[in-house]
Specification:
This protein has three domains: about 90 residues, NAD(P)-binding Rossmann-like Domain (Rossmann fold, 3-Layer(aba) Sandwich); about 210 residues, Mur-like, catalytic domain (UDP-N-acetylmuramoyl-L-alanine:D-glutamate ligase); about 140 residues, Mur ligase, C-terminal domain (Protein-Tyrosine Phosphatase, Chain A). Helix content is about 35%, strand content about 25%. Helix 1 packs parallel to helix 2, helix 5 packs across helix 10 and helix 7 packs across helix 8. About 55% of the residues are buried.
Length: about 475
């Protein structure tokens, strides 16, 4: 694909994945244009780097670059009737999926891909920050913004390329990593894959993409990942495991985990040597993610002591248990969790961070298909909070489904009715949360949709009530 991305037009350029590709292309001196449905912080940053971006999508946007684009890049979210995609076809332009463009950017690097149903962004981010602390300057593309740099992608001078690998549409099957991490395999994205079996099978195909001599790093505690590791070994792939159930000399074993407020301390062992991994974000699941990052860093040649210190320097990712502030004695966090396992893990992490106060969760279900499939599981997971507020479904790319609403989740929460609140009117949620909380509580807004806007609004309302 040499030269194909010299002048690239990205449809939906402000998205998490697309903006990262644009950032790397610009850093490599390529000409970049794009369009998005609305203005965003990402668009402003890319314009400052030299991208030409239009708000709104139209065929004429393909002429933003002198000479027009050499390729048009799209994601799965772009529909076939998008005017820019239609125009690209009419002009005979090469159209690349986002993952194909990312794979082209990996050429010439040693590639580490992090995949899994949960924990991809955090694990990729930990690995990236740790390698940066080791002065290895990796290139990276992540589905979230690092707190350290505020960036989701970077063109580095080192020889490694770290990427979050998205299984939701199977697009990660274009990558050929030498280091592949699979954090877990649990049913999700059935709107695309159709069945649990089909979803699981795509990970088997991902393992087949590992370069000869490469390694699979798999979580021994997750049944899906553990099964994947076993089948990979049978096929002759080298495997390293991590977690409490890991046992081999080359595995990283979790011996103990302790929470110190919002800091987690994992006691681990590798090859008979015991040491600590400190993680500046709460939850044992985050410590386990750090173990995956540590093994991947070793495989990429990072020195062990500096690598462990680098993981300790990781300060988190936007929308992953991200602190939004304190008001009226109430600490407000925001999190991207939108699968029952993720919800349960983050609420477990929130409990020690609350320092004895109540945990109040504001949950927005994401997509009608996921809500219908997992309503009971969501209800069970949310029961770990002291007060539960459930909003209506954020449909994303789906049309509403009759009978599927946030009420399905609220009704499934096995708590006394007075502690579960279904609020379908988004504009009333801020007042409801402010009425519920008291001094010492921890509030966590949770979901993959626009629930992220509520945290700052709750803080503003609490400050108003306190006379601040």
């Amino acid at each position: 694909m040499d030269g194909l991305l010299d002048r690239a037009h990205l449809v939906g350029i402000g998205g998490a994945g697309m903006s990262g590709i644009a950032r790397i292309l610009l850093a490599r001196g390529k000409a970049v244009s794009g369009s998005d449905a609305k203005e965003s912080r990402a668009n402003l940053a890319l314009r400052a780097q030299g991208a030409k971006i239009a708000v709104g999508q139209a065929a004429a946007n393909l002429d933003l670059l002198d000479g027009g684009p050499t390729a048009v890049v799209v994601s799965t979210a772009i529909k076939a009737d998008n005017p820019e995609l239609v125009a690209a076809g009419e002009r005979g332009l090469r159209v690349l999926h986002r993952s194909e463009a990312l794979a082209a950017l990996m050429t010439g690097h040693r590639v580490a891909c992090v995949a899994g149903t949960h924990g991809k962004t955090s694990t990729t981010s930990m690995l990236t920050v740790a390698l940066q602390q080791c002065r290895m300057d990796p290139s990276f593309a992540i589905g979230g913004d690092l707190n350290e740099s505020g960036a989701n992608a970077h063109h580095g001078t080192g020889g490694a390329f770290i990427a979050e690998a998205d299984e939701s549409d199977g697009s990660f099957l274009v990558f050929s990593p030498s280091v592949a991490v699979v954090t877990n395999v649990e049913a999700d994205h059935l709107d695309h894959h159709g069945t649990v079996e089909a979803y699981t099978a795509v990970f088997d195909r991902f393992v087949e993409r590992i370069e000869p001599g490469g390694v699979l790093i798999a979580c021994a505690d997750d049944p899906g990942s553990a099964a994947l590791a076993t089948s990979a070994e049978t096929a002759g792939v080298r495997v390293r495991r991590y977690g409490r159930a890991a046992a081999a000399a080359e595995d990283l074993v979790l011996l103990d985990y302790q929470a110190e407020g919002v800091v987690g301390v994992a006691k681990v062992a590798l090859g008979g040597e015991e040491f600590e991994l400190r993680v500046a974000v709460p939850g044992e699941h985050m410590a386990v993610n750090a173990m995956a990052a540590y093994l991947a860093g070793l495989e990429l040649g990072a020195p062990a002591a500096e690598l462990a210190a680098g993981i300790g320097a990781f300060g988190g990712v936007r929308r992953r248990f991200e602190s939004k502030g304190v008001a009226g004695g109430v600490w407000v966090f925001d999190d991207y969790a939108h699968h029952p396992t993720e919800v349960a893990a983050q609420l477990a992490a929130a409990r020690p961070a609350a320092f004895g106060g109540r945990v109040v969760v504001v949950f927005q279900p994401h997509m009608y298909s996921r809500t219908a499939t997992f309503a009971t599981e969501f209800g069970a997971a949310l029961a770990a909070a002291d007060e539960v507020v459930v909003l209506d479904v954020f449909g994303a790319r789906e049309e509403p489904v009759p009978g599927v609403s946030g009420a399905l989740v609220a009704d499934a929460v096995p708590l006394p009715p007075e502690r579960v609140h279904y609020e379908p009117a988004f504009d009333k949620a801020t007042t409801l949360v402010a009425d519920l909380v008291r001094d010492g509580d921890l509030v966590i807004t949770m979901g993959a949709g626009d629930v992220t806007m509520l945290g700052p609004e709750v803080i503003t309302e609490l400050e108003r009530r306190a006379g601040g």
